[in-house]
Amino acid sequence: MAGLELRGIRKDYGATAVLKGIDLSIADGEFVVFVGPSGCGKSTLLRVIAGLETVTAGDIHIDGTEVTRLAASDRGLAMVFQSYALYPHMTVHQNMSFALENMGIAKAEISARVDRAARMLRLTDYLQRKPAALSGGQRQRVAIGRAIVRDPKIFLFDEPLSNLDAELRVATRKELAALHAEIGGTMIYVTHDQVEAMTLADRIVVLNGGRIEQIGTPLDLYNRP
Ligand code: ADP
Ligand code: ADP
Fold first, then answer.
1. Could you say which ligand is closest to the alpha carbon of residue 49?
2. Which ligand is nearest to the CA of 53?
3. pLDDT in tens, 164-210
4. Contact 135, 156 (CB under 8 A)
5. Which GO terms describe its molecular function (predicted)?
6. For the whole prediction, is pTM greater than 0.95?
7. Handedness of CA 43, 56, 210, 70 (dihedral sign)
8. From CA 12, how far away is CA 57, in angstroms rounded?
9. Which of 147, 151, 145, 155 is nearest to 124 (CA)?
């Protein structure tokens, strides 16, 4: 079956249950946003999907294949973090191509992917610069570019706009929407910003205390009492 399936996901840290049984199906190409109060488990759920955290119970399937015990690198997904985590000594081009070189992808293919991502993100003129010579918005676009060049089926975003000022947040949000329209991958996105959730999501998942409290389209949730 195509898409991402989470079944009975539980995550404990010591005696503390952080995820208490999450069941969720996400279709190919869907833009799903996780919202909820601080500490409700949004970020943990994203990291569990990414393979950056093990689960205490439950299983994860991508396109019908169980990936619960696969490493992050074998899940066909890419994550964009809140802090850009760029390598300061590398150029924009090197930041985007580095992981692909380690994966043994041919040079011509790497260049093609970097050029395409740079075009989409309006970074073509900045490929030879280092992160220190970029604006905050440009740095966050490099971080997004680094995910795009991996050519993942699923993109994971952990509050990617929260370090940007209000104006850049709106601009980058629009770019993300355009990006989703252009490349059509599945996007799973954590935020505590209602406007981001309402404008970006096909479906919003409201988490509370480690459980799914509500789930629906922005319109569904907006119209619900
Ligand atoms: P959210 O992203 O919704 O703010 P998190 O998923 O970051 O919430 O955290 C959920 C809960 O799990 C919080 O109570 C947090 O303190 C706890 N938690 C997160 N990571 C760890 C960890 N590595 N060790 C212990 N507790 C953690
Ligand atoms: P390598 O490419 O040699 O695996 P990296 O430093 O690029 O080394 O990555 C370390 C680990 O984290 C790998 O498992 C890699 O696949 C994974 N990884 C790195 N960046 C991302 C990302 N943006 N999204 C998902 N996984 C990533």
1. 2
2. 1
3. 888 888 988 998 999 999 888 999 999 989 999 999 999 999 999 99
4. no
5. ATP binding
6. no
7. positive
8. 9
9. 145
Residue 54 beta carbon below 6 angstroms from any ligand 1 atom:
no
For the Cβ of 90 lying below 6 angstroms from any atom of ligand 2, the answer is: no
Report which residue type is found at 72.
A
> Is the CB of 184 inside a 6 Å radius of any atom of ligand 1?
no
Distance from C-alpha of 34 to C-alpha of 53, rounded to nearest angstrom: 17
Output the residue whose Cα is nearest ligand 2's atom 14: 73
| 3-class SS of residue 115 | helix
Q: Residue 14 corresponds to which tokens in the numbers above?
A: 């010591």
pLDDT tens-digit readout, 76-122: 999 988 777 899 999 999 999 998 998 889 999 999 999 999 998 99
Mutate to test the pocket of ligand 1, among 9, 18, 156 (most ligand atoms within 8 A of CB): 18
Using alpha carbons, select from 31, 29, 33, 25 the residue that is nearest to residue 60.
Answer: 25
Is residue 79 in contact with ligand 2, taking CB distance under 6 Å? yes
ipTM of the predicted assembly exceeds 0.85 = no
* Residue closest by Cα to atom 24 of ligand 2: 78
HEC string of 16-61?
A: EEEEEEEEEEECCCCEEEEECCCCCCHHHHHHHHHCCCCCCEEEEE
